[in-house]
Give the backbone structure.
Amino acid sequence: MALDRETAMQVAAVLSKGLPYIQRFTGKTVVIKYGGNAMENEDLQRSFARDMVLMKLVGINPIVVHGGGPQIGELLERLSIKSHFVNGMRVTDSETMDVVEMVLGGQVNKQIVSLINQQGGTAVGLTGKDGNLIRARKLEVKNHADELARPEIIDIGHVGEVQEVNVEMIDMLTRSNVIPVIAPIGVGEDGASYNINADLVAGKVAEALKAEKLILLTNVSGLKSKDGEVLTGLTAQEVNDLIEDGTIHGGMLPKIRCALNAVESGVRTSHIIDGRVAHATLLEIFTDEGVGTLISRH
């Protein structure tokens, strides 16, 4: 059915407004951490997949890093394996690590790859173990309790942090017109697997690639002031001030630190955006308004 003239003009205006952004970001790399509601709602899944395909078609190189905590928890429960957490991190013994690899590297990763491919893209799923993509080391968790003479190191098993990212492998994929979809599992020097926080993996991948943008999809509308207003544009110094005065606290703190570290390590901008909004990634990249908080170095 043909569009009426007014609707056609609106579509043309939207496309025209996107042109300067397409020109600015063609050839640039954008790392997107995909998780939360955007990953659990079918309509949002489809809109995210379409966003990735469109970005690739206009010359932007999207790199997707995904989470999967709820899916891991669900399978562990079905298998009657109890979950324990220390400082918000899942204690991961060998049995739990097997489930993590099965869910992240298998179920969740392949579902995202399939979604992107269904929308006409060419996505390839990877874990950090493929081609030594993510070299990891065991994460040390320290208990700084006042009654202890020195910090106690708590063993939380196969939980790691990123030591090195194989940039050449990602470059090879993006040059081949492929959208890499990365599960946050790293490999140690001894070949052991490590479960790594997906935000941290996305941040380190963005840093290693000197990406144009790091985009973290969340279940909130962005970083808020003490008055509840969304803060749309902040410098690294302003973010540090907000951490210092307690405006940024609790569960948002690790995500903000990840975004902050990225811009301080060479990524041009980091974005905390509302993944509950359809086409949130496109709105953040191709409009002035965006749908969240932008953090820049200066």
User: Anything to note?
Assistant: The CA atoms of residues 223 and 229 lie 8 Å apart. The chain has ten helices and 16 strands. The radius of gyration is 20 Å. The longest strand covers residues 29-34.
